[in-house]
From TrEMBL:
SUPFAM superfamilies named among the record's database cross-references: Glycerol-3-phosphate (1)-acyltransferase
Keywords assigned by UniProt, alphabetized: Acyltransferase, Transferase
InterPro entries in UniProt: ACT14924-like_Acyltransf_dom, Plipid/glycerol_acylTrfase
Ranges where the Phospholipid/glycerol acyltransferase domain occurs: 87-203
Protein name (Swiss-Prot/TrEMBL): Glycerol acyltransferase
The keyword Acyltransferase appears for this protein: yes
GO molecular function: acyltransferase activity
Pfam families found in the cross-reference section: Acyltransf_2 (PF19576)
Species classification: Bacteria, Pseudomonadati, Bacteroidota, Bacteroidia, Marinilabiliales
Amino acid sequence: MQKQNVPEFLKIDIEKVFAGKSEKLAKLLPNFIIRYLKRIIHQDELNDFLSRNHHKQGIEFADSVLEELDISFKIEGLENINKEDRYLFASNHPLGGPDGIILISIFGKIYPEIKFLVNDILMNIRNLSDVFIPINKHGGQAKEAALKLEKAYKSDAAILTFPAGLVSRKQKGKIEDLDWKKSFIAKSVKHQRNIVPIHIDGRNSDFFYNLANLRKFFGLKSNLEMLYLPNELFKQRGKTFTVRIGKPISYQTFDKSYSKWAEKMKKETYKLVNQ
């Protein structure tokens, strides 16, 4: 296929990102820092991929990402769900990239419409903007984001979420999600959506976990390790992951503290590994 130029609105440019946040900061950053950041986010490789796939959207784009990285997956428990129900799929978040793309690829082929609740920064991936619903919006955009979220829950679309909100971390020698937020339980009850637990295997590199723990040790609040997620994505090249789909749990089950149920749902998800 002949290589095409990436449309400017899709092109990844780390210098423009910093300039957009703070022109003063952009001018202060040494060139070697910019070069390093370009390398760890794989700017050239990502732009090369976009030059060949920028016209693709949604599920087609997700499939192209998996094909590009030679990532495959196996599915267990597909018989536990049907195409008619308005499920809320709740998954662990081990990888910070491939896991979400895999879920889009799987459920985008089962349901006529899917919506994935994501950190608002991912809305910059324009090719998946029709699938993504932003959360964590602040200021004037918060109201608009909240309305989009409510509309998605009221719709017939299948909804996907990572209740932890962050990629799994290594704590006490064990790689696992941080606490699951209770909001997905509340939305399940409000909109009468049964929850389907999902477990995805896989892990990031020791470097990623060590950096996260080092940052925490020094009391730094900024998630520096998140800068390395594109690099972690490329490290998953050629791997096969197993996606385990549990049995739906009725929204009518959630009659206690939503926080306790969120923790219980997290435990149920990890139990899928041994079933």
